[in-house]
């Protein structure tokens, strides 16, 4: 059904938490091979839930996909365990860092290579690459993850995922808690991996500005439904998106100090 | 249902004490079946129901409550654990159900004027302790030879284990021996410290007041520290097959007091059970174990209860179902003569027993048997606990209980009822 | 369809702060109470009351106490048996040493003894956390086992260390019959449960939960960990102590330290976990599950086996009971890891949406 | 002096035996952050299997050699423990990924009940014997120096040696293999571990298998000491202060903790006990552990408890 | 800058703070002050020591050197409870909410410091205790309204999406009616619109409650727009301090943190 160039095909999925809380109400999206797709939306829109559904991490949250299908390169993956997905090259960077608190930064990174079978040397090479991306991690390599700063943990979480040499990465709010320079770098890394190693990305981001700068395609999720999608370029030009997600409503950028009244986000009907 | 006498069976076949509880329960149940096979008590069949207590007091109380009113009401109850005995003792007078504790429970309940509903028939822990001291004295060549000797009591740290202490202290005072108390925390799986202390103090004798795994562990530790098993004397709950079985040769020479009976594979009773039940596939438990020490204790306990009912029938009407109150009278006026015992198949197993209003125990005899590596063998004559010592102790302790509970002792008139 | 809060608007915060904000719930609870107080004593058999309801009520009370400490304050305790024992022996000493002391003050004094003991063994909680704290409470457990066996003074020099009470009465009303015992325990339970509920939904309850969920953050908003933890230990051990005294006085009548063994402590902990940590109803569900279910299984299994024409021995039943019980624990956890109380509320939530799935 | 040494030595030996049980707790805690309440039940289950197969195998095969019977029984019991581990993962743990410690603890309790029932149903509830030829009689050392010599129990000595070997082996396994790191990751955060591809299910089966084998060794040694019967489960309670003192996550900690607790409880019972009426060793062990905890809340070798905002 | 806000005297003065963990020097000789009613931002690259600075003020970490002066009183280090009593509240970078409690209860904990009824009164919950509870509830409801989380009042916070959790965290701090409010990356994980809302909240708190605000934030747009003065940390050292404009043009700051000019 899916054409070969499509890596991930999410088809009308519905997710229920705890048997009663319906969160996703039929979300469909498609990620092409070698693409960078952004998933945008406000707090509680269901971005994290979508990513969890794809990487099959819902069970631990007592959630379940009750309708729809998810395909990775044409193969149904709802029944595959996360580790099998990692073996197929799909890895997720979880929201909220989730570093292994008792392990050192380096051990954290090394756990990322658990599924790899291509030998110590190759792993060491990737480790060096990650350190090159995030020099800060190198200086903190021997400290326990729990005792590093928030941003350092975020870098560690991203680095750990890269250690698996993935072909497709789900990034959940990678920029959270990172200094602007590092945010820039993270997106550069994404671009870099994407162009050089043809790694595919699906990223859920609040930093819409950045996300749309780097992504090829975007989906906007509100209240568990996709309300808009399109080429990143065209979304950037869209008036609504500009106003609600980019903060450049109408004319120029407004100072945060001058936004006088609380705005209500326009609710799309889907 | 109409013409059946109901006896609840509180037993434990699971949990930590299952190895000991199971043979007892087998004997108990088999005897009840045997009575029925022999035609019941003057034609009254016995119905019974087993309830698993796991040797847990709360569970025992639940079983007691569950069964006490069933099938026309329980005739009597045998709680089979010291903790449960304490709790049920408080309830039985209200429910009017006699509590029969053959060889356990509270020693002072032998005083029937205070403990109207309790029947520690055939022996209490004080009898056991006294008999052991006498046996030890005999070995030494007389009670006066005990002077200056050292005797250690290794006991299960619970009311059960502490029961013999007052008597032993009394004896120690009288004969001038030294009594060393060594508690072992239940269930008694780890006794290294205790036995190190034994090794240090080098007592002349060790008395073992254990239950379950504590007994075999004690014997193994004795072996490991080189304490002579011949100088160890156990209470009757520490002198059955499960206590020595997996120690094997290591327990050779170990002595234990018996509650009259020992292992009696040759007795008529056993033969009857085998031929009337086990050979017809109606027996309880493995056939090989019929006649072992705890099995016999179960059978004997059942027999005493049944005979209480029989004796009640003699007064209140043969062939009728007795109420708890009537059974109580029967237990209080039990008179098991040698002839009766012979008829029941207990010839040679035990001595005659007769109870009265003041004496709910009925007999204070015991023997010593010794493990020879394969089986328990009697190694002493009959020993009678010294009434001069036990009586006053029972009286004073029971009086204290009565005072606490604001009970007045029963009058002679009450004894007639 | 019928179970909705729709249309039930709260016009004051006070109304919103009620224990049961939904009308149907209030009615149901009212009916339940009437049933428990006025109907059960007439309907229930002597066995049901003495062997199931009374222990269930008392153990629920103890579980409530454990839940305050473990469920609300997050301090794992395996010393509940010890607190029960201290309550029981404490009340016993007051009751027997001061002739004429009425029952209820004796029980309360017993509870206060447990409070002191609880605070003493709660002190390590200021430094030691989680499973490591379990060791401190186990120390309390084994120490109390030992203390009541060894220190004769507590048992009024009874040689065996086993004690008993009798002639219980409240305001001249003898607590002898099954119904009177049941009603007395139930009344104690209801009063204490209401007081506890008030505590846990008030400021102190929030302090306990804050300490449980994140103690550093709690400290930052001005909650004193010491006060919160020790007050939880105090309240919890008071309740457990009273329950212990009831267990000894009303249920057992005569007891030895083994009645409050470490097994009891474990059982109480299991109750609050399976029932639902941090939930008052959870304590009841848990107590029912752990104390009543095995008894029920024990009686039901032979019947079920009978249907299939099989006869199981008592041993067989006992073992099957263990296996089924263990299996049920696991099964319920898989269905709802947060305990039976959560399962209950999820059920209610579904009912609220019924007949729609979401 | 001789007596003191004897007590000391006795304590050390008992301590090693405690360590053996403690080890089982540590393994599973390390791998999943679960306090395995079923450890005692596993020890009993394994010991029952071993004891009964040692009885049955000669019956089935007709070969009477004790070595063969015990060896074969050990292997079969080991396989039984593997099966148990596999089932536990399949039926229980798999469904409880990412749940809190209390929930998992409770699940292990359910497992404990189940194993207690199943073990006794399958293998019986009597006392059984494991006779692996442990010498039972005492030997006396240094009887030239001290009067009466110092009593040493050979059985204990062998058992301690086995315990030490097992611990060394396991330490090596955890230190040197990548699995060790993965285990610790799993214990920290199930979900994150899953998300980076650590196969929780496989890891858990492995660890429970190892724990099963440790339980088997513990059951074999304790069973040969005490006889195989239900009370074996209570040994777990004596091993608890050991685990906690050593630190819940430390394999060597289990050993050091065992030695400290063993020595501490024996010395206290022998030298302090008589003044207060005896029977103090069990609570003394817990109090001792508690005192250490007051100085090191995470146990001697446990990982530091992280609390950070 | 709105006209009705007047920046007052120095309320909090941090002098020569040094803090290290083992070999890691989280803070080296940091000094800065905060004036009453101002919005003071702390910025710097990841791991610069910003959060650690707040932890020192808060009494979570005890610095090895230096002192902190709050309203004229000087402390070597602070004790969390004291700090809270003096009116300093705080939000956390890694959400430190009470996960098992509802939104309402979480925010109510912020009022605990002001609740006076004792254990017995609370158990009976009659009269004074009840009135007190209701009074504080009213206040908390205002905060809930203010933060627009009415719909989630009774939801356990663990189930809320990240952004709302951040709001609850702020709500809890606000419930303390703090004189000084320390905010650690309150806007991480929000989109522009939400950030605008949050900025508004912060400014409103600043205006209406008159709270002084110390803010850590990585979004330069926000920092530059709403703060009065900015401290810049890098590798535990202070490399800049001044108004947004001054900081923006500071060479060191650009090199270490901003990269390009914003
Ligand atoms: N474990 C859970 N149990 C119940 N409800 C949940 C759970 N996790 C998320 N939800 C609900 O699902 C909805 C979507 O949440 P989700 O975390 O997917 O949002 P999000 O788009 O990632 O938001 P954010 O940008 O804040 O991270 C929210 O309303 C939330 O309350
Ligand atoms: N408790 C601790 N133990 C050891 N090191 C610590 C501890 N707390 C902080 N650090 C270290 O101190 C440095 C400063 O950390 P801090 O959390 O203050 O950084 P930050 O400026 O808030 O960074 P971010 O923007 O990433 O949150 C970091 O390198 C961190 O690893
Ligand atoms: Mg999200
Ligand atoms: Mg920070």
Automatic annotation (TrEMBL), chain A:
<dbReference type="GO" id="GO:0015658">
    <property type="term" value="F:branched-chain amino acid transmembrane transporter activity"/>
</dbReference>
<comment type="similarity">
    <text>Belongs to the ABC transporter superfamily.</text>
</comment>
<protein>
    <submittedName>
        <fullName>ABC transporter ATP-binding protein</fullName>
    </submittedName>
</protein>
<dbReference type="GO" id="GO:0005524">
    <property type="term" value="F:ATP binding"/>
</dbReference>
<dbReference type="InterPro" id="IPR052156">
    <property type="entry name" value="BCAA_Transport_ATP-bd_LivF"/>
</dbReference>
<dbReference type="InterPro" id="IPR003439">
    <property type="entry name" value="ABC_transporter-like_ATP-bd"/>
</dbReference>
<feature type="domain" description="ABC transporter">
    <location>
        <begin position="8"/>
        <end position="248"/>
    </location>
</feature>
<dbReference type="GO" id="GO:0016887">
    <property type="term" value="F:ATP hydrolysis activity"/>
</dbReference>
<dbReference type="InterPro" id="IPR027417">
    <property type="entry name" value="P-loop_NTPase"/>
</dbReference>
<keyword id="KW-0813">Transport</keyword>
<dbReference type="GO" id="GO:0015807">
    <property type="term" value="P:L-amino acid transport"/>
</dbReference>
<keyword id="KW-0067">ATP-binding</keyword>
Automatic annotation (TrEMBL), chain C:
<feature type="transmembrane region" description="Helical">
    <location>
        <begin position="317"/>
        <end position="335"/>
    </location>
</feature>
<feature type="transmembrane region" description="Helical">
    <location>
        <begin position="130"/>
        <end position="149"/>
    </location>
</feature>
<keyword id="KW-0812">Transmembrane</keyword>
<dbReference type="GO" id="GO:0015658">
    <property type="term" value="F:branched-chain amino acid transmembrane transporter activity"/>
</dbReference>
<feature type="transmembrane region" description="Helical">
    <location>
        <begin position="101"/>
        <end position="123"/>
    </location>
</feature>
<dbReference type="GO" id="GO:0005886">
    <property type="term" value="C:plasma membrane"/>
</dbReference>
<dbReference type="InterPro" id="IPR043428">
    <property type="entry name" value="LivM-like"/>
</dbReference>
<keyword id="KW-1003">Cell membrane</keyword>
<dbReference type="InterPro" id="IPR001851">
    <property type="entry name" value="ABC_transp_permease"/>
</dbReference>
<feature type="transmembrane region" description="Helical">
    <location>
        <begin position="266"/>
        <end position="297"/>
    </location>
</feature>
<protein>
    <submittedName>
        <fullName>Branched-chain amino acid ABC transporter permease</fullName>
    </submittedName>
</protein>
<feature type="transmembrane region" description="Helical">
    <location>
        <begin position="179"/>
        <end position="196"/>
    </location>
</feature>
TrEMBL record, chain D:
<dbReference type="GO" id="GO:0022857">
    <property type="term" value="F:transmembrane transporter activity"/>
</dbReference>
<comment type="similarity">
    <text>Belongs to the binding-protein-dependent transport system permease family. LivHM subfamily.</text>
</comment>
<keyword id="KW-0813">Transport</keyword>
<feature type="transmembrane region" description="Helical">
    <location>
        <begin position="242"/>
        <end position="263"/>
    </location>
</feature>
<feature type="transmembrane region" description="Helical">
    <location>
        <begin position="35"/>
        <end position="55"/>
    </location>
</feature>
<feature type="transmembrane region" description="Helical">
    <location>
        <begin position="157"/>
        <end position="174"/>
    </location>
</feature>
<dbReference type="InterPro" id="IPR001851">
    <property type="entry name" value="ABC_transp_permease"/>
</dbReference>
<protein>
    <submittedName>
        <fullName>Branched-chain amino acid ABC transporter permease</fullName>
    </submittedName>
</protein>
<feature type="transmembrane region" description="Helical">
    <location>
        <begin position="275"/>
        <end position="295"/>
    </location>
</feature>
<feature type="transmembrane region" description="Helical">
    <location>
        <begin position="7"/>
        <end position="29"/>
    </location>
</feature>
<dbReference type="GO" id="GO:0006865">
    <property type="term" value="P:amino acid transport"/>
</dbReference>
<feature type="transmembrane region" description="Helical">
    <location>
        <begin position="203"/>
        <end position="222"/>
    </location>
</feature>
Automatic annotation (TrEMBL), chain E:
<dbReference type="InterPro" id="IPR003593">
    <property type="entry name" value="AAA+_ATPase"/>
</dbReference>
<feature type="domain" description="ABC transporter">
    <location>
        <begin position="12"/>
        <end position="260"/>
    </location>
</feature>
<protein>
    <submittedName>
        <fullName>ABC transporter ATP-binding protein</fullName>
    </submittedName>
</protein>
<dbReference type="GO" id="GO:0005524">
    <property type="term" value="F:ATP binding"/>
</dbReference>
<dbReference type="InterPro" id="IPR027417">
    <property type="entry name" value="P-loop_NTPase"/>
</dbReference>
<keyword id="KW-0547">Nucleotide-binding</keyword>
<dbReference type="InterPro" id="IPR032823">
    <property type="entry name" value="BCA_ABC_TP_C"/>
</dbReference>
<dbReference type="InterPro" id="IPR051120">
    <property type="entry name" value="ABC_AA/LPS_Transport"/>
</dbReference>
<keyword id="KW-0472">Membrane</keyword>
<dbReference type="Pfam" id="PF00005">
    <property type="entry name" value="ABC_tran"/>
</dbReference>
<keyword id="KW-0067">ATP-binding</keyword>
<dbReference type="Pfam" id="PF12399">
    <property type="entry name" value="BCA_ABC_TP_C"/>
</dbReference>
